[in-house]
Amino acid sequence: MTRSIAGRSSLILTVVSLLAAACTSSATPTISPPSSASRAPGANAVGISKIQHVVIIMQENRSFDTYFGTFPGANGIPMANGIPSVCVPDPASGGCDAPFHDQKNLTAGGPHGQANATADVNGGQMNGFVTQAEQAKNGCQDIFNPGCAGTGTPDVLGYVNGAEIPNYWTYAHDFVLQDALFEPNASWSLPAHLFTVSGWSATCTVPTDPGTCTSNINQPGLPTVAEPEPYAWTDLTYLLYQHGVSWGYYLDQGYQPDCAGDGISCAPQPQKVGVPQIWNPLPGFSDVHQDGQLGNIRDISAFTSAAAAGTLPAVSWVIPNAKDSEHPPALISTGQSYVTNLVNTVMQGPDWASTGIFLTWDDWGGFYDHVVPPSVDQNGYGLRVPGLVISPYARAGLIDHQTLSFDAYLKFIEDDFLGGARLDPATDGRPDPRPDVRENAPQLGNLTADFDFNQAPRQPLVLPLHPTTDLQ
């Protein structure tokens, strides 16, 4: 039974060898040990303290309706007699197009910068998706961009179901599916990843001075040789370090395809642990350097090893590379297999009994979604993305209708490990001029509602890495 509760010119960083060497020459990685006073021992833990390991798995570029728009009981694509009842204007045809079942393993999506988000939402009409995709395709010759090829209706209106992504739907059915999780910012990947670790995306006129930072959710910029640490505001790792809470940021090294602001995809660029990149912003935060915590940014193999050995840190972020990210032109099936391996490894390791896994996608990638994002402040929220909670204490078959964003991950971590301390300029000891404390937004739900800490711990649900699917 299903239950519910209330509720992208490319910006490519050219890093000379000097900077790369500087970033990668840190000492052997050291993950700060957790304070014995900060957590109750596992045997005596109660409530939220039963979650001693939070794992955030961040995939790429999918809207909720694209993946779960037909999931039973969820707030999905409006239907009439099983047929989509919405029609999105199509300038190329002069008519409109309806969402359609798309079994392609390789999809293109659409542009997904700040201007595109505004146009997609279109004042609450949620009908700009095809227009934006067709404008992006016009004159496009980028061989790395599947959106350049072909004619006809852009695939931004396509959706899959459980026959195409069976493992994701199994997690949704057996654990928790969130159908009101919004990207924290109405823009693309880099700002979303900044919000994920810091609750803000900004530019700072003086890289060493948090007081010079102002909100910027479209072009916050990447580190340069002249300014290798441009992110002067405070990120969550500062609080974790101050409280002696262990953390790791695990990067699947290789390549990343994303582009700045207004693009769909671009030529792959190297993605390395020690070099700040679109999906790896922490090396650009001055407080990470000041705290000597660069060594906590590690290759993904360190995550799987820790999960297998039962030595996960308290907080883990797990970031894909281009191939397994689901970001066009990556295959959906490859991403699902990658995520399944991560989840299986945790489930089969000693830390499963005390772990909460939060799986999401960083932005909507230009794909259709019908839900109007709530307005929290000048930065967001952005469009709706899928969210899953996988844990031995996750409620079974719950569809969480609470209004959520990635800020809820920060809130959960802070409540679980930091006694409720917030990234709050008034209290965190490192003030910055962020416009608000996003974790305290009255619209924001609480992830603890997705757990039943009184239930017997759920057994692992190990799924096949390469399930049979209808993807073509």
What is the terminal-to-terminal distance?
A: 31 Å
Class based on secondary structure composition and strand pairing:
alpha/beta
> What's the β-strand tally?
21
| Average pLDDT number | 88
Helix % is 10-25%
The percent range for strand residues is 5-15%
Largest sheet: 9 strands, mixed
Strand order of the largest sheet: 1-20-9-19-18-2-17-13-16
Number of helices: 11
Notes on the structure:
By secondary structure, the chain is of the alpha/beta class. Helix content is 21%, strand content 15%. A hairpin with an 8-residue loop joins strand 11 and strand 12. The longest helix has 16 residues.
Features:
21% helix, two-stranded antiparallel ribbon, alpha/beta, globular, 472 residues
Describe how the helices and strands are arranged.
Blueprint: E1 3-5, H1 17-24, E2 53-59, H2 64-68, E3 79-80, E4 83-84, E5 88-90, E6 95-97, E7 100-101, H3 114-121, H4 129-137, E8 158-159, H5 166-174, E9 176-178, E10 181-182, H6 189-198, E11 202-204, E12 213-215, H7 236-242, E13 247-251, E14 254-256, E15 269-271, H8 286-290, E16 297-299, H9 300-309, E17 315-319, H10 332-347, E18 355-361, E19 387-390, E20 398-400, E21 404-405, H11 407-417
Parallel strand pairs: 1-20, 2-17, 2-18, 7-8, 9-20, 10-21, 13-16, 13-17
Antiparallel strand pairs: 3-4, 5-6, 9-19, 11-12, 14-15, 18-19
